[in-house]
Structures are given as structure tokens and as C-alpha cells.
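Deliverable D2.4 — example input (C-alpha cells):
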């Protein structure tokens, strides 16, 4: 029973793999070759729901795992995204009280990606979209992608910026010396954070939020460390020599970004985010199946916030932002 002391729990960064999309990119890092993780990625029904029930999670918002449809040629990406989104709609229809969905977007064709976002929201009842990492080497702030932001604003849905493996030049320069012993350094341990935080910073600096002032962006993993650095980024960009010393990175970030708890169940980190952004900007996520449900659920009773604020994080903020 859902009560103030036992609130509804909605997890919004929970991944699956579509077989056709996954076949197009293969296994891109070591941890994804773990058979139990792969089995969970391809489970869209009873076993997944059983794990949700055991943990007490009421709903997952499903999204394709990285790199989704951010790579390859435009024509192929469009076909893959359309097929995957149609199949995801059937997964949600089979369990509408347990699943919702974020669209996969064929960003190699930005106009088609904007159209696919509209189709998924207007016809398939998706709640927004997720984009993974760079698109064939291009950051998401590139003006070629701005039609996607324009459409997201018109539809009033968020875009979730999720990590993917960093640019090959970055891998070569930053990580290659340690990958034999510590392959996780390239992904969740650090590489994902650096790549996605950089995407977030570039979005703020690009002017896209001036062009489309109602765009909403979600970042996972408690904001990819950006809330911790907001004061310093803001102060450094206001120093003499920058283009606009009255520019407030902090204000833009706090207006346009929401963050989730995916794969980062740290009370000190959470409290930093609450103090920087406010509790209304934080949403619960697990990062299933790359992180299992139980560690996230075990963390909830330890969170040093009021029952009202916990309810906002666990479901209330997602219900409002995604109109669940």
C-alpha cells in the first residue's frame, strides 16, 4: 500500500536492449558482456517485473541502452529507431501500469529525429527521449541538432542526456594506459561522467536555452558531478576575459536541468545536489540492469530528508515532469 511512509517508487533511467538496435553496435565494453546483465536487458516482462516487485518499484521508464541510435548512417538510424520505438510501445502496452518509455532518436538525421520524437510523444504516448553520448563524433550542442530541442520544447517533454563510450581520441589520450586492468575507468567509473558533464556544459554555453527557453534536460548519476562544481564553473566563467562576465552558468543549469539518482546512492552527494538545485529537481533512478534494484532500495531509508521530500524524489517529481 502506498502511504507517506511507503511512497510510490518510479525509476526513470532503466534500460533494455532491442535486438535489432543492439545488433547494429555490438558489445561495446567489457561489463556488457556479463551474461546476467545481457539477459536482463533482453527481458521485457515477467522476470523484470518480478525484480521490481521484490524491490518495491512500482514503475520503470524504459530507455534503450547506449549507444542506441546515435551512430551510423542517417538512413539506417532512422529505420532502427522507428522499429525499436514501435516495439517498445508494445512492451509498454503489455504492462501499462508498470512501464513507460523514452524514445530512441536517430540523431544522425536531426530533422528525422525531431519528427520521430513528435511521433513517439503524440502517437505512442512516450514521455520524452534519451540520447546517448556523441553522434558520430558530434556533441549534442551542435546547431545541426537544434531542431530536436525546438521540437522537445513544442511538445513539452524532456531530453535525457545519457553517457556513451567517449570519443576515440579521448580514449587514446586519457584512458588507454589503464584499460587492461581497469576497463570500468572508461565507462561508469569516470569516462561516462567526463563525457556527459562536458555535453551539459556545452549545452549551456551554446545558446540553445536562449533560443528555446523552455527546454528541459535530464542528467543521470546525480548530474554527472556538475552540481558539486556549479559554484566554481559559474565563478570562472564570470572572470574577466570571458565573453559575458554577467553570464550565470549556475542559473541556466538550475533552470533547465533535472538530475536523477541513477547508479549514485550517496547521501553526501545527494545533499550537495539538494542544496544546489533544490529537491524538486531530483528524480529517483536505479540504472537497471547495470546496477541492480536492491542497492537503490536499501539506500532509501538512509536518506536524511523529510518524508515529503523523499516522496518528491521517489515519484512526485517524475509524475509532474513526465506527466505519468
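Example output (designed residues):
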Amino acid at each position: 500500500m502506498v502511504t507517506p511512509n511507503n511512497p510510490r517508487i518510479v525509476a526513470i533511467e532503466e534500460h533494455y536492449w532491442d535486438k535489432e538496435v543492439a545488433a547494429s553496435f555490438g558489445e561495446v565494453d567489457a561489463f556488457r558482456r556479463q551474461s546476467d546483465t545481457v539477459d536482463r536487458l533482453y527481458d521485457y516482462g515477467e522476470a523484470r517485473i518480478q525484480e521490481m516487485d521484490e524491490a518495491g518499484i512500482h514503475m520503470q521508464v524504459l530507455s534503450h541502452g547506449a549507444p542506441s541510435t546515435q551512430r551510423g548512417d542517417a538512413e539506417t538510424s532512422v529505420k532502427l529507431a522507428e522499429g525499436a520505438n514501435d516495439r517498445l510501445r508494445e512492451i509498454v502496452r503489455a504492462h501499462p501500469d508498470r512501464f513507460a518509455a523514452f524514445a530512441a532518436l536517430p540523431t544522425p538525421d536531426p530533422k528525422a529525429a525531431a519528427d520521430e520524437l513528435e511521433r513517439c510523444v503524440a502517437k505512442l504516448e512516450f514521455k520524452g527521449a534519451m540520447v546517448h553520448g556523441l553522434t558520430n563524433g558530434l556533441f549534442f550542442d551542435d546547431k545541426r541538432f537544434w531542431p530536436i530541442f525546438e521540437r522537445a520544447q513544442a511538445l513539452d517533454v524532456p531530453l535525457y542526456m545519457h553517457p556513451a563510450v567517449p570519443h576515440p581520441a579521448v580514449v587514446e589520450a586519457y584512458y588507454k594506459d589503464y584499460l587492461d586492468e581497469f576497463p570500468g575507468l572508461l565507462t561508469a567509473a569516470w569516462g561516462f561522467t567526463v563525457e556527459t558533464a562536458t555535453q551539459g556544459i556545452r549545452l549551456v554555453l551554446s545558446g540553445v536555452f536562449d533560443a528555446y527557453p523552455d527546454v528541459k534536460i535530464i542528467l543521470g548519476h546525480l548530474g554527472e558531478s556538475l552540481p558539486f562544481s556549479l559554484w566554481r564553473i559559474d565563478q570562472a566563467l564570470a572572470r574577466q576575459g570571458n565573453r559575458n562576465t554577467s553570464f550565470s552558468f549556475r542559473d541556466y543549469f538550475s533552470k533547465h536541468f533535472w538530475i536523477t539518482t541513477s547508479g549514485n546512492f550517496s547521501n553526501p552527494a545527494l545533499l550537495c545536489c539538494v542544496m544546489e538545485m533544490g529537491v524538486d529537481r531530483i528524480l529517483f533512478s536505479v540504472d537497471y540492469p547495470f546496477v541492480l534494484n536492491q542497492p537503490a532500495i536499501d539506500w532509501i531509508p538512509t536518506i536524511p530528508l523529510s518524508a515529503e521530500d523523499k516522496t518528491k524524489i521517489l515519484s512526485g517529481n517524475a509524475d509532474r515532469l513526465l506527466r505519468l
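The chain has a mean pLDDT of 94.
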